[in-house]
C-alpha cells in the first residue's frame, strides 16, 4: 500500500476537519488520561499507604525526570514532524529512513539519560533543597526510574511514529494495558510486599517495559512504510539533520520549562513538607487539564504536518482555527469543574487538612487562567508541524520560562506567599499567548516553511 493511499485512508488530509480532528484527538486524549492515571496511581498509593513524607519525596522528583526525559522527547518530536510530512506527501522511502533514525535516537538518548541521571541524582536533589527527611526516598525513586528509562524512550518515540502516520488508537491500547499493569504492581509491591517508594518506582519501570515491547511489536509486524526492522536502525545523516533542526528547539524548550519548574519546586520546598505534598497532589490533578491541551497540541501538529506535506495550505489554516476553538471550549469547561470539585479531588491524595488548604489556595489562582495557555499550546504545535520550531521556542522560553524565573526570584522573594508563587502562571501565560497570536497572524512562518520545502508559493499567501 502506498503512502498516498494511507494518507487518504486516515482522512487527515481530507474530510470534514472537525470530525477528523475529533477522531484523531479522542484516542490521544483517552491515552493521555491513562498516562496521567498511570502516574496518579503512584501518588495515591504513596500518599494513602506510605505517608506524607513519601508523597513529598515522589512529588519532588518529577521536575528532575522531566528535565532529562523532556529534552530527548522534544528532540525526537522533530522525527514525528518529518514523518508526518513525508507520509502526507506519499514518500514511503523517506518515511522508513525517518522511522529508523528516530528509533536510533531513542536508544542513544535513553542510554545517555540513564547514565547521566544515575550519576547526578543526589547532587540534583541537594541542589533543589530537598529536605533531609525525604532525601532517601526521593533518591530511591529517582535511581530506579532512571535505570529503566530506555524502555520509556522507546515507547515515547514509537508512539510519535504511530501518531505521525495517523494512528492514535494503538498508543491508546498500549497505555490502557500499561496503566492496568502499573495499578496491579503498585498495589502488590506496596500493600503485599511493603516495598514502599521502591515498589512504586519498580512498578512504574516494569509497566514501561511492557509498553515499549507492545509498541515495538506493532511497528515490527506492519508491512507499511513505517515498519521497523532492527537491522535498519541507524542514523540517516540528512534525516537526522532535519530532525535536529525541528526537534532541538522543542527539546531546549522542554529543558527551559523544566528549569523554570525546578525554580518553582525550589520555591515550594521553602514552604516546608506540607507545601511539597500539596504541590505533588496539585500536579496530578491539574495534569488532567494539561492532558487535554496536550492532546489537542499533538493532534494539530500531525494535522498541519500531513496537510503541509500534501501542500493543502488552506486546510492547514482551517484546521488550526477549528482546533483552537475546540481546545478553548473544553479547557474552560474543565476549569469550572475543577473549581467546583477541587476539595474532594485533593482528598483523594491526602487527608491532611493543611495540605488540602494549600492546594485550594493554589487552584483559585490557576483554574481561571488555564484557557490562556491554549493559545500557546495550539499555535506553537501548528507552527512546529509546518517545520518551524526555533521561533516558537524563543517565544515560549522568554515569554513563559524566562519571565517565570524572574517572577519567582524577584516578586516571590518580596512577597513570600504561596499565592505569589501561583501567580507566576497566569502572568507569564497571558504575555506569551499575546505574542503567539501576533506571530501566527502575520503568517511569515508559513511562507518560510513553504520556501524551505521548495514548494510553489500560493497566491493567497
TrEMBL record:
Positions of transmembrane segments: 21-38, 64-87, 99-119, 139-158, 170-191, 197-221, 242-268, 288-310, 322-342, 362-382, 394-416, 422-441
Organism: Candidatus Acutalibacter pullistercoris
Compartments it resides in: Cell membrane
GO molecular function (one): xenobiotic transmembrane transporter activity
Keywords, comma-separated and alphabetical: Cell membrane, Membrane, Transmembrane, Transmembrane helix, Transport
Keyword Repeat set for record: no
Protein name from the UniProt record: MATE family efflux transporter
Membrane topology note: Multi-pass membrane protein
One CC-aspect GO term: plasma membrane
Superkingdom: Bacteria
InterPro entries tied to this protein: MATE_fam (IPR002528), MdtK-like (IPR048279), Membrane_Transporter-Flippase (IPR052031)
Amino acid at each position: 500500500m502506498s503512502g498516498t493511499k494511507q494518507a487518504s485512508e486516515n482522512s487527515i488530509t481530507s474530510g470534514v476537519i472537525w470530525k477528523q480532528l475529533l477522531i484523531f484527538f479522542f484516542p490521544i486524549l483517552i491515552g493521555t488520561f491513562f498516562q496521567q492515571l498511570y502516574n496518579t496511581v503512584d501518588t495515591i498509593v504513596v500518599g494513602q499507604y506510605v505517608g506524607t513524607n513519601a508523597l513529598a519525596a515522589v512529588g519532588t522528583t518529577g521536575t528532575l525526570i522531566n528535565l532529562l526525559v523532556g529534552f530527548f522527547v522534544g528532540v525526537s518530536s522533530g522525527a514525528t514532524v518529518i514523518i508526518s510530512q513525508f507520509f502526507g506527501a506519499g514518500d514511503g522511502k523517506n518515511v522508513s529512513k525517518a522511522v529508523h533514525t528516530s528509533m536510533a535516537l531513542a536508544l542513544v538518548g535513553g542510554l545517555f539519560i540513564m547514565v547521566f541521571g544515575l550519576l547526578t541524582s543526589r547532587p540534583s536533589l541537594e541542589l533543589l533543597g530537598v529536605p533531609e527527611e525525604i532525601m532517601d526516598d526521593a533518591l530511591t525513586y529517582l535511581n530506579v526510574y532512571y535505570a529503566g528509562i530506555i524502555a520509556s524512550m522507546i515507547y515515547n518515540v514509537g508512539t510519535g511514529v504511530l501518531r505521525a502516520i495517523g494512528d492514535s488508537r494503538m498508543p491508546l491500547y498500549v497505555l490502557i494495558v500499561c496503566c492496568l499493569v502499573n495499578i496491579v504492581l503498585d498495589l502488590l509491591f506496596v500493600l503485599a510486599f511493603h516495598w514502599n517508594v521502591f515498589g512504586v518506582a519498580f512498578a512504574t519501570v516494569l509497566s514501561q517495559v511492557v509498553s515499549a515491547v507492545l509498541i515495538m511489536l506493532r511497528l515490527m509486524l506492519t508491512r507499511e512504510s513505517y515498519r521497523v526492522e532492527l537491522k535498519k536502525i541507524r542514523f540517516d545523516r540528512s534525516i537526522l539533520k532535519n530532525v535536529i533542526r525541528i526537534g532541538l528547539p522543542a527539546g531546549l524548550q522542554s529543558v527551559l520549562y523544566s528549569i523554570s519548574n525546578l525554580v518553582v519546586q525550589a520555591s515550594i520546598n521553602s514552604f516546608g513538607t506540607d507545601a511539597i505534598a500539596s504541590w505533588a497532589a496539585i500536579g496530578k490533578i491539574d495534569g488532567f487539564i494539561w492532558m487535554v491541551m496536550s492532546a489537542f497540541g499533538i493532534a494539530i501538529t500531525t494535522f498541519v504536518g500531513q496537510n503541509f506535506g500534501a501542500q493543502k495550505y488552506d486546510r492547514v489554516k482551517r484546521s488550526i482555527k477549528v482546533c483552537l476553538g475546540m481546545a478553548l471550549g473544553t479547557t474552560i469547561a474543565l476549569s469550572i469543574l475543577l473549581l467546583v470539585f477541587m476539595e474532594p479531588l485533593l482528598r483523594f491524595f491526602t487527608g491532611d487538612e493543611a495540605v488540602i488548604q494549600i492546594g485550594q489556595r493554589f487552584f483559585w489562582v490557576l483554574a481561571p487562567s488555564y484557557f490562556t495557555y491554549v493559545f500557546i499550546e495550539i499555535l506553537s504545535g501548528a507552527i512546529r508541524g509546518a517545520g518551524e520550531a526555533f521561533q516558537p521556542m524563543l517565544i515560549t522560553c522568554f515569554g513563559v520560562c524566562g519571565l517565570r524565573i524572574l517572577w519567582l526570584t524577584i516578586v516571590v522573594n518580596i512577597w513570600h506567599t504561596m499565592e505569589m508563587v501561583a501567580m507566576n502562571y497566569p502572568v507569564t501565560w497571558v504575555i506569551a499567548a499575546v505574542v503567539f497570536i501576533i506571530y501566527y497572524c502575520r503568517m511569515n512562518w508559513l511562507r518560510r516553511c513553504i520556501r524551505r520545502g521548495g514548494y510553489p508559493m500560493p497566491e493567497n499567501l
